[in-house]
Write a structure and sequence with these properties.
Strand order of the largest sheet: 1-2-3-4
Strand content: 25-35%
Number of domains: 1
Shape: elongated
Order of helices and strands: EEEEHH
Number of strands: 4
Number of helices: 2
Largest sheet: 4 strands, antiparallel
Helix content: 25-40%
C-alpha cells in the first residue's frame, strides 16, 4: 500500500506564502512541470488562511480565492474568508439539526405511563 503512494506529476505546484503576521496568510500555488519550470497550461491558484477564536479554541479557516494576481487575492481575501465561515456555520447547523432529529421521543403510551405511574 505504501508502495502505491505517488505524486501526480501532472498536478505539481510551487507554493509561496504571504502573510501580514496578524490576520492571516495567502498561499500562491504556481503550476510547475517535473523539472520545476512554470507550466503555463494551468492557472495559478490562491488559498486564504486565517484562524478565528471559538469557545473551543482557535478554529482554522481556509478558502480558495478566485484572483488573477496577488493584489487581487489580497483584495478578495476578506470576502472569501467570510464565505468560508458562512459555509462552516451552515455545516455546523446542519450537523446539529441531524443530531437533534436522532433524538427519539417516547410514544404517547410510554409518556402516559411515566406521568401516571401505571
Amino acid at each position: 500500500m505504501i508502495d502505491e503512494i505517488r505524486l501526480d506529476t501532472g498536478s505539481l505546484y510551487r507554493e509561496e506564502s504571504f502573510t501580514d503576521l496578524k490576520v492571516g496568510s495567502i498561499r500562491r500555488l504556481v503550476p510547475v512541470t517535473t523539472d520545476g519550470n512554470l507550466d503555463p497550461s494551468r492557472p495559478v491558484r490562491f488559498v486564504g488562511q486565517t484562524q478565528l477564536m471559538s469557545q473551543l479554541g482557535p478554529l482554522p479557516v481556509q478558502c480558495s480565492i478566485e484572483a488573477a494576481n496577488l493584489a487581487e487575492a489580497i483584495e478578495r481575501f476578506p470576502m472569501a474568508i467570510k464565505l468560508a465561515v458562512d459555509e462552516l456555520v451552515a455545516e455546523a447547523r446542519e450537523m446539529q439539526r441531524r443530531e437533534m432529529s436522532r433524538i427519539v421521543a417516547p410514544s404517547a403510551q410510554v409518556t402516559s405511563k411515566i406521568l401516571t405511574g401505571k
